[in-house]
Amino acid sequence: MSLKLYATLGSPPVRSTLLTIAALGLKDKVKLIPVDLFNFDHLKPEFVAKNPLHTVPVLEDGNFTLWDSHAINSYLVNKYATDDALYPKDIQKRALVDSMAHFDTGYLFGKGVRIIKAVFTTDKSVNMDELKADVRESYDILEVILNKRKFVAGDSMTIADFNIVATLSTTEVCVPMEKEYPSIDAWYAKMRQLPYYSINAKGVEMFRTVFSKLISQL
């Protein structure tokens, strides 16, 4: 096994993959390659050759290269898991996991990253109030979803929970929840009890430090 992960801990997608790696017991078998976004490592030719989207994470498994955390997480489970609990083989259960991956990409992370980009590039032209309203709408949708489920894609934890918890814990830094979300809170409590959740918590604090410094400049 020769696994390499190009990563920066402040990134929510990276943390979702690190949570997946930890859940699979692969932590000691994956070599982490730091990518310094502020040094523009992700725009260097050698990195773009691996991932034309110049995003993190990027996984190398021998001669195979894969980008996008959702694809990476499902790949890791498909190849290395001893069972299908984290990414069920049942078609309908798997479809629910996939649907939440799209919710993450299109709504929760998709909307939150617009704020992150504006802050990290000190773009003062954006309407921050509108962007925050979009993120809060995602919170409302997630609350409705979790009203009917113990975890985001059903009654047991899957890789979809890793995607969502990594994103939500980050967007909360940018857009704090202004009202009560009891279903989200109950789910959050379960995720924080994971023995490897500190991986995510550490990355969130790293993000918070940088974000707080940059937001003051807008």
TrEMBL record:
Domain (GST C-terminal): residue spans on this chain: 90-211
Protein name in the entry: Glutathione S-transferase
Cross-referenced CDD domains: GST_C_Delta_Epsilon (cd03177), GST_N_Delta_Epsilon (cd03045)
GO terms classed as biological process: glutathione metabolic process
Family from the record: Belongs to the GST superfamily.
Domain GST N-terminal: 1-84
Domain of life where this protein originates: Eukaryota
InterPro entries the record matches: Glutathione-S-Trfase_C-like, Glutathione-S-Trfase_C_sf, Glutathione_S-Trfase, Glutathione_S-Trfase_N, GST_C, Thioredoxin-like_sf
GO molecular-function terms, A-Z: glutathione transferase activity
Record Pfam families: GST_C, GST_N
Subunit structure: Homodimer.
Gene3D superfamilies: 1.20.1050.10, Glutaredoxin (3.40.30.10)
PANTHER family: FI01423P-RELATED, GLUTATHIONE S TRANSFERASE D10, ISOFORM A-RELATED
